[in-house]
Write a structure and sequence with these properties.
With 591 residues, the protein is α+β, with helices and mostly antiparallel strands. It has four domains: 176 residues, no CATH class; 152 residues, no CATH class; 111 residues, no CATH class; 81 residues, no CATH class. The chain contains 17 helices and 20 strands. The strands form five sheets. It has a five-stranded mixed sheet. A five-stranded antiparallel sheet has the order 12-11-15-14-13. Strand 3 and strand 4 form a beta hairpin. Helix 11 packs across helix 12. The longest helix has 33 residues. The radius of gyration is 29 Å and the shape is globular. It starts with 12 loop residues before the first helix and ends in a 31-residue tail after the last strand. The N terminus and C terminus are likely disordered. GO terms for molecular function: single-stranded DNA binding.
Protein backbone atom coordinates (compact mmCIF):
# COMPACT_ATOMS: atom_id res chain seq x y z
CA UNK A 1 0.00 0.00 0.00
CA UNK A 2 1.39 3.42 -0.94
CA UNK A 3 1.74 5.94 1.84
CA UNK A 4 2.44 3.32 4.56
CA UNK A 5 5.60 3.69 6.62
CA UNK A 6 7.64 0.80 7.93
CA UNK A 7 7.06 0.14 11.60
CA UNK A 8 9.46 -2.42 13.14
CA UNK A 9 7.00 -3.01 16.01
CA UNK A 10 4.10 -3.72 13.66
CA UNK A 11 1.02 -1.60 13.08
CA UNK A 12 -0.26 0.48 15.99
CA UNK A 13 -3.73 0.09 17.50
CA UNK A 14 -4.86 3.15 15.54
CA UNK A 15 -3.51 1.77 12.27
CA UNK A 16 -5.19 -1.59 12.86
CA UNK A 17 -8.47 0.17 13.66
CA UNK A 18 -8.26 2.19 10.46
CA UNK A 19 -7.66 -0.97 8.47
CA UNK A 20 -10.84 -2.48 9.94
CA UNK A 21 -12.78 0.72 9.21
CA UNK A 22 -11.46 0.82 5.68
CA UNK A 23 -12.39 -2.82 5.01
CA UNK A 24 -15.97 -2.14 6.06
CA UNK A 25 -16.25 1.06 4.06
CA UNK A 26 -14.82 -0.56 0.92
CA UNK A 27 -17.39 -3.36 1.18
CA UNK A 28 -20.23 -0.86 1.60
CA UNK A 29 -19.18 1.40 -1.27
CA UNK A 30 -18.56 -1.65 -3.50
CA UNK A 31 -22.10 -2.88 -2.82
CA UNK A 32 -23.55 0.56 -3.64
CA UNK A 33 -21.45 0.76 -6.79
CA UNK A 34 -23.18 -2.43 -7.94
CA UNK A 35 -26.57 -0.85 -7.23
CA UNK A 36 -26.30 2.89 -6.53
CA UNK A 37 -29.98 3.13 -5.56
CA UNK A 38 -29.22 0.89 -2.58
CA UNK A 39 -29.41 2.88 0.71
CA UNK A 40 -26.37 3.55 2.85
CA UNK A 41 -28.14 1.92 5.79
CA UNK A 42 -31.03 -0.50 5.31
CA UNK A 43 -34.05 -0.10 7.58
CA UNK A 44 -33.24 -3.07 9.83
CA UNK A 45 -29.84 -1.60 10.71
CA UNK A 46 -30.56 2.12 11.12
CA UNK A 47 -30.94 2.28 14.92
CA UNK A 48 -28.20 4.37 16.54
CA UNK A 49 -25.48 2.30 18.29
CA UNK A 50 -25.28 2.59 22.09
CA UNK A 51 -23.47 0.96 24.97
CA UNK A 52 -25.09 -1.14 27.70
CA UNK A 53 -25.84 1.98 29.76
CA UNK A 54 -27.74 3.59 26.89
CA UNK A 55 -25.09 6.18 26.00
CA UNK A 56 -24.90 6.84 22.25
CA UNK A 57 -21.63 6.47 20.38
CA UNK A 58 -20.34 9.54 18.56
CA UNK A 59 -21.04 10.01 14.85
CA UNK A 60 -17.79 8.51 13.57
CA UNK A 61 -18.00 5.39 15.72
CA UNK A 62 -21.75 5.13 15.19
CA UNK A 63 -21.35 5.09 11.42
CA UNK A 64 -18.86 2.23 11.48
CA UNK A 65 -20.80 0.24 14.08
CA UNK A 66 -23.95 0.53 11.96
CA UNK A 67 -22.05 -0.87 8.99
CA UNK A 68 -20.75 -3.65 11.25
CA UNK A 69 -24.30 -4.48 12.40
CA UNK A 70 -25.47 -4.71 8.80
CA UNK A 71 -22.52 -6.86 7.70
CA UNK A 72 -23.00 -9.32 10.57
CA UNK A 73 -26.82 -9.05 10.88
CA UNK A 74 -26.66 -7.83 14.48
CA UNK A 75 -30.26 -6.96 15.34
CA UNK A 76 -29.42 -4.96 18.46
CA UNK A 77 -26.95 -2.04 17.99
CA UNK A 78 -25.65 -2.43 21.56
CA UNK A 79 -21.93 -2.81 22.27
CA UNK A 80 -19.71 -3.31 25.31
CA UNK A 81 -16.06 -3.94 26.15
CA UNK A 82 -14.76 -7.27 27.47
CA UNK A 83 -14.31 -5.63 30.87
CA UNK A 84 -17.92 -4.44 30.91
CA UNK A 85 -19.18 -7.95 30.09
CA UNK A 86 -17.15 -9.40 32.94
CA UNK A 87 -18.51 -6.72 35.27
CA UNK A 88 -22.04 -8.09 34.83
CA UNK A 89 -21.08 -11.10 36.96
CA UNK A 90 -20.26 -9.41 40.26
CA UNK A 91 -20.94 -6.48 42.57
CA UNK A 92 -18.26 -4.44 44.34
CA UNK A 93 -18.24 -3.88 48.10
CA UNK A 94 -16.95 -0.84 49.97
CA UNK A 95 -13.38 -2.14 49.98
CA UNK A 96 -13.44 -2.72 46.24
CA UNK A 97 -13.72 -6.50 46.50
CA UNK A 98 -15.75 -8.41 43.93
CA UNK A 99 -18.69 -10.52 45.03
CA UNK A 100 -20.45 -12.92 42.62
CA UNK A 101 -24.07 -11.96 41.90
CA UNK A 102 -26.77 -14.32 43.15
CA UNK A 103 -30.52 -14.73 42.64
CA UNK A 104 -33.26 -14.49 45.29
CA UNK A 105 -32.41 -18.02 46.50
CA UNK A 106 -28.73 -17.24 46.95
CA UNK A 107 -27.75 -19.23 43.85
CA UNK A 108 -25.03 -17.77 41.69
CA UNK A 109 -26.39 -16.23 38.50
CA UNK A 110 -25.27 -17.67 35.15
CA UNK A 111 -22.00 -16.18 33.96
CA UNK A 112 -22.16 -13.56 31.21
CA UNK A 113 -19.27 -13.95 28.78
CA UNK A 114 -18.08 -13.27 25.26
CA UNK A 115 -18.67 -16.28 23.03
CA UNK A 116 -15.72 -18.43 22.00
CA UNK A 117 -13.75 -17.09 19.03
CA UNK A 118 -15.68 -13.82 18.66
CA UNK A 119 -13.72 -10.90 17.24
CA UNK A 120 -13.91 -7.40 18.76
CA UNK A 121 -14.26 -4.18 16.80
CA UNK A 122 -12.33 -0.95 17.49
CA UNK A 123 -13.82 2.42 18.39
CA UNK A 124 -11.99 5.72 18.73
CA UNK A 125 -12.33 7.57 22.04
CA UNK A 126 -10.83 11.04 22.48
CA UNK A 127 -9.66 12.09 25.94
CA UNK A 128 -8.41 15.54 26.85
CA UNK A 129 -5.70 16.85 29.17
CA UNK A 130 -6.28 20.45 30.28
CA UNK A 131 -3.23 22.31 31.66
CA UNK A 132 -2.91 25.82 33.10
CA UNK A 133 -0.46 27.68 30.86
CA UNK A 134 1.28 29.37 33.80
CA UNK A 135 1.07 27.02 36.79
CA UNK A 136 1.05 23.80 34.69
CA UNK A 137 -1.68 22.44 36.98
CA UNK A 138 -4.22 20.07 35.41
CA UNK A 139 -8.00 20.37 35.69
CA UNK A 140 -10.79 18.07 34.55
CA UNK A 141 -12.30 18.59 31.11
CA UNK A 142 -15.80 19.02 32.57
CA UNK A 143 -14.49 21.82 34.82
CA UNK A 144 -12.84 23.47 31.81
CA UNK A 145 -16.14 23.45 29.92
CA UNK A 146 -17.79 25.39 32.74
CA UNK A 147 -15.29 28.26 32.43
CA UNK A 148 -16.04 31.43 30.51
CA UNK A 149 -14.32 31.91 27.11
CA UNK A 150 -11.90 34.38 28.72
CA UNK A 151 -10.99 31.93 31.51
CA UNK A 152 -10.52 29.10 29.01
CA UNK A 153 -7.78 31.09 27.28
CA UNK A 154 -5.57 30.51 30.34
CA UNK A 155 -5.45 26.78 29.61
CA UNK A 156 -3.99 24.51 26.94
CA UNK A 157 -6.08 21.52 25.82
CA UNK A 158 -4.29 18.42 24.53
CA UNK A 159 -6.49 15.79 22.84
CA UNK A 160 -5.45 12.15 22.72
CA UNK A 161 -7.04 9.55 20.47
CA UNK A 162 -7.46 6.16 22.16
CA UNK A 163 -8.61 2.87 20.68
CA UNK A 164 -10.96 0.57 22.61
CA UNK A 165 -12.32 -2.78 21.50
CA UNK A 166 -16.02 -3.57 21.78
CA UNK A 167 -18.33 -6.53 21.17
CA UNK A 168 -21.94 -6.55 20.05
CA UNK A 169 -24.32 -8.17 22.56
CA UNK A 170 -24.96 -10.86 19.94
CA UNK A 171 -21.34 -11.92 20.47
CA UNK A 172 -22.12 -12.70 24.12
CA UNK A 173 -24.50 -15.03 25.94
CA UNK A 174 -26.33 -12.06 27.49
CA UNK A 175 -29.68 -13.11 26.06
CA UNK A 176 -29.55 -16.46 27.85
CA UNK A 177 -27.73 -15.36 31.02
CA UNK A 178 -29.63 -12.11 31.65
CA UNK A 179 -32.94 -12.37 29.73
CA UNK A 180 -34.56 -9.46 31.58
CA UNK A 181 -31.70 -7.11 30.74
CA UNK A 182 -31.75 -8.27 27.13
CA UNK A 183 -35.49 -7.51 26.84
CA UNK A 184 -34.92 -4.01 28.21
CA UNK A 185 -32.24 -3.44 25.60
CA UNK A 186 -34.68 -4.52 22.88
CA UNK A 187 -37.31 -2.07 24.14
CA UNK A 188 -34.84 0.82 24.27
CA UNK A 189 -33.59 0.30 20.72
CA UNK A 190 -36.76 0.26 18.66
CA UNK A 191 -36.34 2.37 15.53
CA UNK A 192 -38.73 5.34 15.32
CA UNK A 193 -39.52 6.58 11.82
CA UNK A 194 -41.27 9.82 10.81
CA UNK A 195 -44.96 9.28 10.15
CA UNK A 196 -45.28 11.10 6.82
CA UNK A 197 -42.56 10.24 4.35
CA UNK A 198 -44.50 8.39 1.65
CA UNK A 199 -47.78 10.28 1.39
CA UNK A 200 -48.42 13.67 -0.19
CA UNK A 201 -47.64 15.54 3.03
CA UNK A 202 -43.96 14.50 3.13
CA UNK A 203 -43.63 15.94 6.62
CA UNK A 204 -40.68 15.93 8.99
CA UNK A 205 -41.50 18.85 11.27
CA UNK A 206 -38.02 19.93 12.47
CA UNK A 207 -36.56 20.24 8.95
CA UNK A 208 -39.76 21.82 7.61
CA UNK A 209 -39.60 24.40 10.41
CA UNK A 210 -35.94 25.10 9.67
CA UNK A 211 -36.76 25.85 6.03
CA UNK A 212 -39.85 27.94 6.73
CA UNK A 213 -38.45 29.97 9.64
CA UNK A 214 -34.91 30.22 8.19
CA UNK A 215 -33.38 28.46 11.18
CA UNK A 216 -30.43 26.83 9.41
CA UNK A 217 -26.95 28.41 9.13
CA UNK A 218 -27.71 29.57 5.59
CA UNK A 219 -30.89 30.21 3.53
CA UNK A 220 -32.69 27.17 2.05
CA UNK A 221 -34.84 27.88 -1.01
CA UNK A 222 -37.31 25.49 -2.66
CA UNK A 223 -37.76 26.34 -6.34
CA UNK A 224 -39.54 24.60 -9.19
CA UNK A 225 -36.46 23.47 -11.15
CA UNK A 226 -34.39 20.31 -11.56
CA UNK A 227 -31.22 20.70 -9.50
CA UNK A 228 -30.17 20.60 -5.85
CA UNK A 229 -26.98 22.33 -4.77
CA UNK A 230 -25.14 24.36 -2.16
CA UNK A 231 -23.60 27.56 -3.50
CA UNK A 232 -20.31 28.42 -1.81
CA UNK A 233 -20.28 31.91 -3.31
CA UNK A 234 -23.81 32.77 -2.13
CA UNK A 235 -23.72 30.54 0.97
CA UNK A 236 -27.18 29.27 0.13
CA UNK A 237 -28.95 25.95 -0.55
CA UNK A 238 -31.35 25.51 -3.46
CA UNK A 239 -33.60 22.46 -3.86
CA UNK A 240 -36.51 21.51 -6.15
CA UNK A 241 -39.95 21.74 -4.57
CA UNK A 242 -41.16 18.82 -2.44
CA UNK A 243 -43.71 17.75 -5.04
CA UNK A 244 -40.91 17.09 -7.54
CA UNK A 245 -39.43 14.32 -5.37
CA UNK A 246 -40.61 10.73 -5.50
CA UNK A 247 -41.08 10.57 -1.70
CA UNK A 248 -40.16 12.24 1.55
CA UNK A 249 -37.01 10.20 2.07
CA UNK A 250 -35.65 11.39 -1.28
CA UNK A 251 -36.43 15.03 -0.44
CA UNK A 252 -35.06 15.05 3.10
CA UNK A 253 -32.02 12.94 2.13
CA UNK A 254 -31.12 15.44 -0.59
CA UNK A 255 -31.70 18.35 1.81
CA UNK A 256 -29.39 16.80 4.42
CA UNK A 257 -26.73 16.22 1.74
CA UNK A 258 -26.66 19.92 0.88
CA UNK A 259 -26.86 20.93 4.55
CA UNK A 260 -23.75 18.83 5.18
CA UNK A 261 -21.94 20.74 2.43
CA UNK A 262 -22.96 24.04 4.03
CA UNK A 263 -21.39 23.08 7.38
CA UNK A 264 -17.97 23.20 5.76
CA UNK A 265 -18.12 26.88 4.80
CA UNK A 266 -15.51 29.35 5.96
CA UNK A 267 -16.25 30.53 9.49
CA UNK A 268 -18.10 27.28 10.34
CA UNK A 269 -16.07 24.11 10.02
CA UNK A 270 -13.70 25.60 7.41
CA UNK A 271 -13.69 22.36 5.46
CA UNK A 272 -14.45 23.28 1.87
CA UNK A 273 -12.72 25.60 -0.55
CA UNK A 274 -13.67 26.27 -4.17
CA UNK A 275 -12.55 23.20 -6.15
CA UNK A 276 -12.88 22.03 -9.73
CA UNK A 277 -15.77 19.67 -10.44
CA UNK A 278 -14.40 16.12 -10.53
CA UNK A 279 -11.18 16.91 -8.64
CA UNK A 280 -9.93 14.85 -5.68
CA UNK A 281 -10.93 17.63 -3.27
CA UNK A 282 -14.41 17.78 -4.77
CA UNK A 283 -14.75 13.99 -4.60
CA UNK A 284 -13.73 13.93 -0.94
CA UNK A 285 -16.26 16.64 -0.05
CA UNK A 286 -18.95 14.60 -1.80
CA UNK A 287 -18.06 11.61 0.38
CA UNK A 288 -18.31 13.76 3.51
CA UNK A 289 -21.73 15.01 2.37
CA UNK A 290 -22.94 11.50 1.57
CA UNK A 291 -21.79 9.90 4.81
CA UNK A 292 -22.82 12.89 6.92
CA UNK A 293 -26.32 13.08 5.47
CA UNK A 294 -26.77 9.28 5.67
CA UNK A 295 -25.74 9.31 9.31
CA UNK A 296 -28.10 12.15 10.27
CA UNK A 297 -30.95 10.64 8.24
CA UNK A 298 -30.60 7.29 10.00
CA UNK A 299 -30.65 9.05 13.39
CA UNK A 300 -34.21 10.17 12.62
CA UNK A 301 -35.39 6.98 10.94
CA UNK A 302 -34.97 8.17 7.34
CA UNK A 303 -33.45 5.87 4.71
CA UNK A 304 -30.83 7.67 2.62
CA UNK A 305 -29.73 6.57 -0.85
CA UNK A 306 -26.73 8.06 -2.61
CA UNK A 307 -27.37 11.29 -4.47
CA UNK A 308 -27.33 10.58 -8.21
CA UNK A 309 -24.67 13.21 -8.87
CA UNK A 310 -22.41 11.58 -6.27
CA UNK A 311 -22.66 8.07 -7.74
CA UNK A 312 -19.94 8.86 -10.29
CA UNK A 313 -17.43 9.23 -7.43
CA UNK A 314 -17.91 5.70 -6.10
CA UNK A 315 -14.98 4.36 -8.09
CA UNK A 316 -12.59 7.13 -7.03
CA UNK A 317 -13.62 6.68 -3.39
CA UNK A 318 -12.75 3.00 -3.63
CA UNK A 319 -9.38 3.74 -5.21
CA UNK A 320 -8.28 6.23 -2.57
CA UNK A 321 -9.54 4.05 0.30
CA UNK A 322 -7.47 1.15 -0.96
CA UNK A 323 -4.50 3.48 -1.36
CA UNK A 324 -4.62 5.25 2.00
CA UNK A 325 -6.67 4.31 5.11
CA UNK A 326 -5.60 7.69 6.57
CA UNK A 327 -7.97 9.25 4.03
CA UNK A 328 -10.89 7.57 5.78
CA UNK A 329 -9.76 8.79 9.20
CA UNK A 330 -9.74 12.46 8.22
CA UNK A 331 -12.99 12.05 6.30
CA UNK A 332 -14.72 10.42 9.26
CA UNK A 333 -13.63 13.19 11.59
CA UNK A 334 -15.17 15.72 9.21
CA UNK A 335 -18.33 13.61 8.96
CA UNK A 336 -18.53 13.51 12.75
CA UNK A 337 -18.29 17.30 13.08
CA UNK A 338 -20.75 18.01 10.28
CA UNK A 339 -23.37 15.46 11.37
CA UNK A 340 -23.14 16.64 14.98
CA UNK A 341 -23.70 20.24 13.90
CA UNK A 342 -26.83 19.31 11.92
CA UNK A 343 -28.27 16.94 14.54
CA UNK A 344 -27.84 19.52 17.32
CA UNK A 345 -29.81 22.09 15.31
CA UNK A 346 -32.55 19.58 14.42
CA UNK A 347 -32.90 18.54 18.07
CA UNK A 348 -33.09 22.15 19.23
CA UNK A 349 -35.85 22.93 16.74
CA UNK A 350 -37.68 19.70 17.63
CA UNK A 351 -37.64 20.66 21.33
CA UNK A 352 -39.13 24.06 20.55
CA UNK A 353 -41.84 22.50 18.40
CA UNK A 354 -42.71 20.03 21.13
CA UNK A 355 -42.87 22.84 23.69
CA UNK A 356 -45.17 24.84 21.42
CA UNK A 357 -47.52 21.94 20.80
CA UNK A 358 -48.56 21.50 24.44
CA UNK A 359 -50.71 24.34 25.70
CA UNK A 360 -51.51 24.98 29.36
CA UNK A 361 -54.59 26.78 30.72
CA UNK A 362 -54.16 28.95 33.81
CA UNK A 363 -57.21 30.30 35.64
CA UNK A 364 -57.11 34.09 36.01
CA UNK A 365 -60.73 34.70 37.07
CA UNK A 366 -63.50 32.49 38.48
CA UNK A 367 -66.92 34.21 38.39
CA UNK A 368 -69.85 32.69 40.28
CA UNK A 369 -71.95 35.59 41.64
CA UNK A 370 -74.69 37.26 39.63
CA UNK A 371 -73.04 40.70 39.84
CA UNK A 372 -70.04 39.26 37.96
CA UNK A 373 -71.81 36.81 35.67
CA UNK A 374 -74.63 39.09 34.46
CA UNK A 375 -72.70 40.65 31.57
CA UNK A 376 -71.38 37.24 30.54
CA UNK A 377 -74.93 35.81 30.55
CA UNK A 378 -76.20 38.59 28.26
CA UNK A 379 -73.41 38.06 25.75
CA UNK A 380 -73.86 34.28 25.88
CA UNK A 381 -77.62 34.57 25.24
CA UNK A 382 -76.93 36.82 22.23
CA UNK A 383 -74.40 34.35 20.92
CA UNK A 384 -71.72 37.05 21.04
CA UNK A 385 -68.80 34.82 21.89
CA UNK A 386 -66.23 37.32 20.64
CA UNK A 387 -67.73 39.74 23.14
CA UNK A 388 -67.41 37.08 25.84
CA UNK A 389 -63.72 36.71 25.05
CA UNK A 390 -63.16 40.49 25.05
CA UNK A 391 -64.95 40.80 28.42
CA UNK A 392 -62.92 37.93 29.84
CA UNK A 393 -59.68 39.70 28.91
CA UNK A 394 -60.70 42.63 31.13
CA UNK A 395 -60.60 40.38 34.19
CA UNK A 396 -56.94 39.54 33.68
CA UNK A 397 -54.82 41.49 36.18
CA UNK A 398 -51.48 40.92 34.44
CA UNK A 399 -50.00 38.71 37.15
CA UNK A 400 -49.12 35.85 34.77
CA UNK A 401 -49.42 32.18 35.65
CA UNK A 402 -51.73 31.08 38.45
CA UNK A 403 -49.45 28.26 39.61
CA UNK A 404 -52.03 26.43 41.69
CA UNK A 405 -54.78 26.41 39.06
CA UNK A 406 -52.99 25.61 35.81
CA UNK A 407 -54.06 22.61 33.71
CA UNK A 408 -53.45 20.88 30.39
CA UNK A 409 -57.17 21.15 29.56
CA UNK A 410 -59.60 24.03 30.14
CA UNK A 411 -62.29 21.51 31.14
CA UNK A 412 -61.69 20.45 34.73
CA UNK A 413 -65.16 19.88 36.21
CA UNK A 414 -68.26 17.94 35.25
CA UNK A 415 -70.47 20.21 33.16
CA UNK A 416 -67.64 22.46 31.92
CA UNK A 417 -68.16 23.83 28.41
CA UNK A 418 -65.46 25.68 26.43
CA UNK A 419 -67.37 28.59 24.89
CA UNK A 420 -64.54 30.23 22.96
CA UNK A 421 -60.75 30.56 22.87
CA UNK A 422 -58.05 32.26 20.85
CA UNK A 423 -54.26 31.99 21.02
CA UNK A 424 -54.15 33.76 24.40
CA UNK A 425 -57.42 33.30 26.34
CA UNK A 426 -60.29 30.84 26.85
CA UNK A 427 -63.73 31.24 28.48
CA UNK A 428 -65.30 28.20 30.17
CA UNK A 429 -68.98 28.02 31.26
CA UNK A 430 -70.54 25.61 33.73
CA UNK A 431 -74.36 25.63 33.89
CA UNK A 432 -74.65 23.92 37.27
CA UNK A 433 -75.31 25.83 40.53
CA UNK A 434 -76.57 28.98 38.87
CA UNK A 435 -73.89 29.10 36.19
CA UNK A 436 -70.21 30.03 36.53
CA UNK A 437 -67.61 31.45 34.15
CA UNK A 438 -63.88 30.89 34.28
CA UNK A 439 -61.40 32.97 32.31
CA UNK A 440 -58.20 31.11 31.47
CA UNK A 441 -54.91 32.44 30.14
CA UNK A 442 -52.97 30.12 27.80
CA UNK A 443 -49.24 29.36 28.07
CA UNK A 444 -46.84 27.23 26.04
CA UNK A 445 -44.89 24.49 27.78
CA UNK A 446 -41.71 26.51 27.34
CA UNK A 447 -43.28 29.39 29.23
CA UNK A 448 -44.29 27.00 32.02
CA UNK A 449 -40.74 25.63 32.16
CA UNK A 450 -39.24 29.12 32.29
CA UNK A 451 -41.62 29.98 35.14
CA UNK A 452 -40.54 26.91 37.09
CA UNK A 453 -36.86 27.83 36.67
CA UNK A 454 -37.54 31.30 38.04
CA UNK A 455 -40.07 30.62 40.81
CA UNK A 456 -39.89 26.92 41.70
CA UNK A 457 -43.01 24.93 42.58
CA UNK A 458 -43.67 25.76 46.24
CA UNK A 459 -47.26 26.90 45.64
CA UNK A 460 -47.82 25.10 42.33
CA UNK A 461 -50.59 22.65 41.56
CA UNK A 462 -50.06 19.10 40.36
CA UNK A 463 -49.90 19.99 36.64
CA UNK A 464 -46.93 22.33 37.04
CA UNK A 465 -45.25 19.91 39.43
CA UNK A 466 -45.54 17.22 36.75
CA UNK A 467 -43.68 19.46 34.30
CA UNK A 468 -41.02 20.16 36.94
CA UNK A 469 -40.51 16.42 37.42
CA UNK A 470 -40.24 15.99 33.65
CA UNK A 471 -37.53 18.65 33.57
CA UNK A 472 -35.44 16.90 36.22
CA UNK A 473 -35.88 13.49 34.57
CA UNK A 474 -34.76 14.97 31.24
CA UNK A 475 -31.67 16.45 32.90
CA UNK A 476 -30.74 13.04 34.25
CA UNK A 477 -31.30 11.41 30.86
CA UNK A 478 -28.83 13.86 29.33
CA UNK A 479 -26.08 13.01 31.81
CA UNK A 480 -23.37 10.72 30.38
CA UNK A 481 -24.12 8.35 33.28
CA UNK A 482 -25.58 8.42 36.77
CA UNK A 483 -23.69 10.66 39.22
CA UNK A 484 -21.32 8.83 41.54
CA UNK A 485 -20.40 9.87 45.08
CA UNK A 486 -16.93 8.80 46.20
CA UNK A 487 -17.08 9.02 49.99
CA UNK A 488 -14.21 9.51 52.44
CA UNK A 489 -14.91 6.01 53.82
CA UNK A 490 -14.14 4.51 50.42
CA UNK A 491 -17.81 3.75 49.68
CA UNK A 492 -18.94 4.23 46.10
CA UNK A 493 -22.54 5.48 45.99
CA UNK A 494 -24.70 5.91 42.89
CA UNK A 495 -27.51 8.41 42.56
CA UNK A 496 -30.74 8.32 40.55
CA UNK A 497 -33.84 10.49 40.26
CA UNK A 498 -37.14 8.83 41.17
CA UNK A 499 -39.67 10.77 39.12
CA UNK A 500 -42.73 9.16 40.70
CA UNK A 501 -41.66 10.15 44.23
CA UNK A 502 -39.84 13.31 43.10
CA UNK A 503 -36.73 12.46 45.06
CA UNK A 504 -33.05 11.68 44.66
CA UNK A 505 -32.19 8.13 45.68
CA UNK A 506 -28.71 7.04 46.71
CA UNK A 507 -27.37 3.53 47.07
CA UNK A 508 -25.08 0.83 45.74
CA UNK A 509 -25.20 -0.66 42.26
CA UNK A 510 -26.37 -4.25 41.85
CA UNK A 511 -27.26 -6.37 38.83
CA UNK A 512 -30.94 -5.82 39.63
CA UNK A 513 -30.49 -2.04 39.75
CA UNK A 514 -29.89 0.49 42.52
CA UNK A 515 -30.06 -0.83 46.09
CA UNK A 516 -31.52 2.33 47.66
CA UNK A 517 -30.09 3.36 51.04
CA UNK A 518 -31.12 7.05 51.21
CA UNK A 519 -33.81 9.28 49.67
CA UNK A 520 -33.85 13.08 49.46
CA UNK A 521 -36.77 15.22 48.32
CA UNK A 522 -35.82 17.18 45.20
CA UNK A 523 -35.68 20.95 45.75
CA UNK A 524 -37.05 22.60 42.59
CA UNK A 525 -35.96 26.01 43.85
CA UNK A 526 -32.37 24.95 43.08
CA UNK A 527 -30.63 23.59 40.01
CA UNK A 528 -29.43 19.99 39.67
CA UNK A 529 -25.84 20.72 40.76
CA UNK A 530 -27.04 22.41 43.96
CA UNK A 531 -29.33 19.47 44.76
CA UNK A 532 -26.45 17.05 44.27
CA UNK A 533 -24.18 19.15 46.45
CA UNK A 534 -26.80 19.27 49.23
CA UNK A 535 -27.14 15.49 49.12
CA UNK A 536 -23.38 15.05 49.25
CA UNK A 537 -23.08 17.45 52.22
CA UNK A 538 -25.72 15.48 54.12
CA UNK A 539 -24.08 12.14 53.35
CA UNK A 540 -20.64 13.38 54.40
CA UNK A 541 -22.09 14.08 57.85
CA UNK A 542 -23.28 10.47 58.23
CA UNK A 543 -21.01 8.42 60.56
CA UNK A 544 -20.91 5.43 58.22
CA UNK A 545 -19.29 7.52 55.47
CA UNK A 546 -16.60 9.14 57.60
CA UNK A 547 -12.94 8.65 56.82
CA UNK A 548 -11.49 5.27 57.82
CA UNK A 549 -7.86 4.17 57.54
CA UNK A 550 -4.46 5.82 57.29
CA UNK A 551 -4.17 9.45 56.23
CA UNK A 552 -2.29 8.44 53.08
CA UNK A 553 -5.24 6.31 51.96
CA UNK A 554 -7.86 9.00 52.36
CA UNK A 555 -10.29 9.39 49.47
CA UNK A 556 -11.59 12.90 48.93
CA UNK A 557 -15.39 12.87 48.55
CA UNK A 558 -16.54 14.25 45.23
CA UNK A 559 -19.33 14.09 42.71
CA UNK A 560 -18.34 12.37 39.47
CA UNK A 561 -20.73 13.55 36.75
CA UNK A 562 -18.69 12.82 33.64
CA UNK A 563 -16.64 10.06 32.09
CA UNK A 564 -13.00 10.34 31.17
CA UNK A 565 -13.97 10.63 27.53
CA UNK A 566 -16.43 12.89 25.78
CA UNK A 567 -16.61 10.99 22.56
CA UNK A 568 -19.44 8.52 22.65
CA UNK A 569 -18.72 5.74 25.14
CA UNK A 570 -19.27 5.55 28.90
CA UNK A 571 -18.62 3.23 31.81
CA UNK A 572 -16.84 0.60 29.84
CA UNK A 573 -14.11 3.07 28.82
CA UNK A 574 -14.00 5.25 31.93
CA UNK A 575 -10.80 3.46 32.94
CA UNK A 576 -7.91 2.90 30.59
CA UNK A 577 -7.87 -0.66 29.28
CA UNK A 578 -4.87 -2.62 28.12
CA UNK A 579 -4.72 -2.91 24.38
CA UNK A 580 -5.79 -6.36 23.20
CA UNK A 581 -3.07 -7.62 20.89
CA UNK A 582 -5.04 -10.76 20.04
CA UNK A 583 -8.63 -9.78 19.24
CA UNK A 584 -9.81 -13.39 19.18
CA UNK A 585 -11.21 -14.43 22.54
CA UNK A 586 -10.12 -17.92 23.62
CA UNK A 587 -12.46 -20.27 25.44
CA UNK A 588 -12.71 -19.44 29.14
CA UNK A 589 -14.23 -21.60 31.83
CA UNK A 590 -16.29 -19.84 34.47
CA UNK A 591 -14.81 -20.07 37.93
Amino acid sequence: MAGKRYNPDGPSAEERALERFTELMIKKISSIKGDWKKPWFTENFMAWPKNLSGREYNGMNALMLMLLCEENSYKLPVFCTFQRVSGLNYSTDRQGNHKPLTDANGERLPQVSVLKGEKSFPVFITTFTVVDKETKEKIKMEDYRKLSPEEQKKYSVYPKLNVHNVFNVAQTNLREARPELYEKLCERNNLKRPASLDDEKMAFAPLDEMIEKKLWVCPISLEHQDSAYYSIAKDAIVLPEKSQFINGESFYGTLLHEMTHSTGAEGRLDRIKPAAFGSKEYAREELVAELGSALVASQYGITKTIKEDSAQYLGSWLDVLKESPEFLKTTLFDVKKASSMIAQRIDAVAEKIEAKERMFYSSVAYLQFSDDTGQFDELKEKGDYEGLLALGREYYDGNGINEKYTYLSPLQNKGDDLLIEDKDFAVVYNGSVGGTYEVMLKFTEQEIRDHIKQYGVDIAGETIKEVARDMVAEQFDRLPRSPIFEMASGDILYLEYNREKDCLTVGTATNAGLAVQHSFAYNHNQDLDSNLQDVLTTLKACPEYQYRGDAEERVNPQIDLMDADNDGNTQEVAHEEREQEDEYVPYRRGR
